[in-house]
Amino acid sequence: MLGKNWTYQQDGATPHTHHLSQKLCVDHFPAFIPNPKTRWPSNSPDLCSFDYSLWNELGQAMDWNYVTAKATLIVEIKQSVKKLKKKNF
């Protein structure tokens, strides 16, 4: 679908840097940047900017007292997304 003109890169999360994960990526992707922990400075932002914007806003909008199980967590996330200000994103 994407052809061979792209590069795959993961963040430095422990599951992504495990030697088996690294080998799978090297073996299956046309281009791969291995072991991001040696190439990225510590505490650098992830590839996903949501980690520093959307998830923070969403967490603040949620009523955590209502969350008692997976089902109520899902309901609260859906309701809280509607509360977020569109101009922030």
TrEMBL record:
GO MF entries: nucleic acid binding
Can you name this protein? Uncharacterized protein
The record's annotation in InterPro entries points to: RNaseH_sf (IPR036397)
Show the taxonomic lineage.
Answer: Eukaryota, Metazoa, Spiralia, Gnathifera, Rotifera
Where does the source fall among the domains of life? Eukaryota
